[in-house]
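Journal club prep — side note

Before the paper discussion, L.F. wants everyone to see what a predicted structure for a comparable chain looks like in token form. Sequence:
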Amino acid sequence: MMLFYTWSNLTGARRRAEGQPAGLRRRIALLLALVIGLALVPFAGSLHAQPEGERILTLIVGEKTHVLTHEDLRKLPETSFSTTTIWTSGLQQFRGIHLRDLIKTYLPDATELTLIAANDYQITVPVEDLALDGAVLAYERNGSVMTLRDKGPLWLVYPYDLKSKFQNEIIYSNSIWQLERIIVKI
């Protein structure tokens, strides 16, 4: 009895000659598919909505790190609005928190923010340049919690249709999606 199989065993040439079971190749293929499938399970969750208690945003202030969850963000005053964007089709309904409320609550001494997305895209902006009267950290779009696949978990959006000052390249470049981290300069 053989304890391991060579390529010729798997291709069937020796299998038939040695009287091995006809379904061996199929079993190995199924086992391989199962192993690959199980290996991908840890990555599957990152494409789905974050459960309420899981980290959604990390704030880094010097040596200190503060991790926020959906629950933490929902404790802040909520806002919602509808607008069109240059990245989507049709009117979009956003729900989230004003960036100014996040800053007032967690980062009152901030002078500059570096916002970093899941793909490491980042912007660095002085706090006063963020047009704080309109900047919203949205966690829902069109009634659904945003996933990584649809620009979540957070998207910094503005009511683009409300005022012309929200319709320029600076505001568009500040509209970072898949936001995960904010590094704060004081």
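L.F.'s comment for the group: The chain has two domains: 7-45, 55-185. Keep this in mind when we get to the figures.
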